[in-house]
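thought: fold this chain, then report.
action: predict
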Amino acid sequence: MKIHFRAAKTQKAESALNDLVKKHGQCDESACDVIVVLGGDGTMLEALHAYDMSSKPVYGMNFGSVGFLMNPYKPDDLIQKIEKASKVAIHPLKMTATCANGKRHEAVAFNEVSILRETRQAARLKILVDGVVRIAELVCDGILLSTPAGSTAYNLSAHGPILPLSSNLLALTPISAFRPRRWGGALIPSNLKVRIEALDDDKRPISATADSNEFRDVVSIDIHQSDSLSKTLLFDPDHHLEERILKEQFLS
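observation:
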């Protein structure tokens, strides 16, 4: 098996990288059978973006604090673990953000697209789903649209729902909503398009972030789940992502 290794810039991860390369070799990403990522969820997201046009499956080994998208670091029998791993296909969000100066930015998010206020004043947002206005004015610190794979990250911290991978849903979750005060968010079928428009953007500017790609002074954001882009993550059979997402819902 030809493996391409990628590691976080930490002493432990780089030390493990050296040991694994000595044992298995380091294959170029374009010619490998699998990509092995050493680090935490942040490192995994960086790898997914770095290899977003690659069809190679990705197997993560945890050297971070949470590692929800990673497997435990057990270097023995690595090839056998990869061969027995369960496959999970994830589809990212595609975002187009239009700035006040008319410039358009495109980015991909495997976890979420988040829209946040830039100043001390709350943002005023209009929410449209498939061209229909669902909220004419949302006053809040921000809002995010999360994939099922990302629903246990920022979305969960913002009190959004955890989504099973097979749900075909996206979570639209407000951040500190002031008006409508009791609006708790919505579940959006993954085939629908979401548009968020800034109201009073010159006084209340907002930013849009797709995973780690941030754009400021945004006036509109169009988001939809990509049908053409997907990544395959590999998980140990006893560490399957679907089971971890289900288990997370019963934790206090």
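thought: worth noting. The domain at 93-225 is CATH 2.60.200.30 (Tumour Suppressor Smad4).
final: tokens above.
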